[in-house]
Amino acid sequence: MRELVVLQVGQCGNHTGIKFWEIISDEHGVSPNGSFHGESELQLERMNVYYTEAMGGRFVPRCVLIDLDPGTQNTVRGSPFGRLFRPENFIAGRAGSGNNWAKGRYTDGLEMMDAVLDVVRKEAEGCDHLQGFQIIHSIGGGCGSGMGSAIMDQLRDEWSDKIFNNFTVLPSPKVSDVVVEPYNSIFSLDHLIETSDLTVILDNEALYDICNHVLKTSCSFADLNHLISTAICGITTCFRFPGQLNSDLRKLAVNLVPFPRVHFVAPCFVPLTSRDNQTYKAITVPNLVQQMFDAKVLMAACNPLKGRYLTCAAVFRGRLSVAEVEEMMLNTQDKNSTHFVEWIPNNCQTALCDIPPRGMKMSATFMGNSTAIQAVFGRIQSAYSSMFKRKAFIHWYTGEGMEESEFLSTESNVLDLISEYQQYQEAPA
Q: What residues does the Tubulin/FtsZ 2-layer sandwich domain cover (predicted)?
């Protein structure tokens, strides 16, 4: 079985991660104490991808929960599924990172690194055939960003042949008022460009607009985490249930990433529902496909119509006709052919899973590697640049051991990435 180890880093990573485990445990028939109460062999068939079978037939998530602030983990432990995790897989510091990337990367985070690597090694050794790591984190604060970067560097050194997949939450002033978020984000993006194989961008700017304008609901962190966790569950469907396409992380990365640095994808999940209202209207395959390509439900604040898709992948769930799904996807591609590069053949992949999400007849999760995502990086780089020009707050970072030259080199790497996306957008057939 090709197993995955999940690392939840920082406050956002842990709160989103616990929601992810709640949903997939429900889908696989795992109760909060780890016992199996499902009704189908399909729920068990690929359980080992995410769970270890422990003593007494209990299923335990293959997950490491990390935060500099012990308060987050106390919240996770006290949640309904808190007892599901191995107690020794909770690793916490003594105090938070103060929203400082350098603290997570160079000082407080590094002090915890040996403890983190010990637990990750134990999880990896318990796998028959480890395929890779999935890291759930945000990059606006200090722990998910700085310590997340340090962990990625260490894991890459030790497991260079494995696949690294990040679920990365990007900050927005609409959601948070931490003034140094642009610094933390650019430093983290610089690391993600070099160390991640596939980064799924979950942009708070877009998630806020989905809550307000599409779902017309409140926009608490719980609402944002609900949207993020539905996307992660949709993306992981093919790893967790039997399917033909993108059935493991490496295959998904190969299909979505045409060039190593250009590995940032924007997801969406349809039909969208709010946390409080999980009722679903009757929906058809044409509805699903139409909604899937609507920029308003994309979880990154960019408009794919202003760019071109290099690649994309869709996961449909429910008892659907393969022929109908593929026909609708081809029709949509044909109608929007100018928004797909023509020099990558068969660049839109479709996978089907018979098992719908709980309470739904059908759903679809989409991942698009579009050149339009440069707008997201441009937004953060612009805020970064205007702060760095004034040398605002840099003493917080140099005080933790950073050099001022790092501010220039990291920004330069992100600007290069933006240029690469633009170059592929303009590339002729």
A: 245-382
